[in-house]
Write a structure and sequence with these properties.
A 7-stranded parallel β-sheet has the order 8-7-6-9-10-11-12, sandwiched between helices. It starts with a strand and ends in a 12-residue tail after the last helix. It has about 325 residues and is α/β, with parallel strands linked by helices.
Length: about 325
Amino acid sequence: MANYTVVVTDHDFDDLSIEQDILDGIADVTAVADGVDADDEAVREALRDADGVLNLRHDLDAADIEAAADCRIVARYGIGVDNVDIEAATERGIYVTNVPEYCLEEVSTHTLTLLLGLLRGLPQYQRSVAAGEWEREAAPPMHRLSTRTVGVVGFGAIGRTVADSLGSLAGDVIASDPFVDSETMAEHGVEKVEFETLLDRADAVTIHSPLTDETRGLFDEGAFERMRDDAVLVNVARGPIVDVDALLAALDAGEIGGAGLDVFPTEPPAADHPLCDHERVLVTPHVAWYSEEANNERRWTAAENVRAALQGETPVDVVNDV
């Protein structure tokens, strides 16, 4: 018989069978809402009975953490934990866990897909052919990737995987990350540079940073002014890292060559958002992480972290000091 209650704040799964199987006999698994649009008050009320929490996108602030008086763990269905008040959880002795490696292959592949699509003029050619044209000149002049410099912003697990994939394709790979030393980057065949230098040198830039006070709005008007006029930008990290108004202005002014966006500051963006139908932009709906294998792995890992905490063990993927 189950002794505990695990609350799923929000999810985008067909059912909760994976979580229920892993926690069978340990905890009852209950979802606040059938989807990702859980009401704030409903979540907070459900947390009052929670011994463990599984969380996708719903923001859990200090008041939510305080409401979860008996909670032992908040387990994120993902890598980032910027939607959880970690300080509040730590103060109350609550583990916060993530799933650090479940989608490295997927995000790396998606990054390269957007990058190569932009460099090969796919947005322009698709529009041109759809309009009845058959013209090479529909896209700007192209260059071999082996002659280009790619800049990687953020050199964590995903950034390193992307850099490794680029090693046999790009001419040079440079990276900016204040928390990773040059020796570590060199092990991946990458040159460490300052952020401003990366903007100056790169023909293509890919973003893999977490969302922090320092990275919010990192790509602003000034950043786009420094980038090469034909450079392309790919963001598969967090939407607010890029000032999308500044990006649109830079594209329209010819300050950069194109952009590939898997994330927006507000999701979904408005249906008539000008970037979604821009002739030099590729947009995907926050799916860089996705494959069936990755989806199952994140669910299994998050539920295993909850199981461990409820059975008095230290979860494998703890991100705070409890």
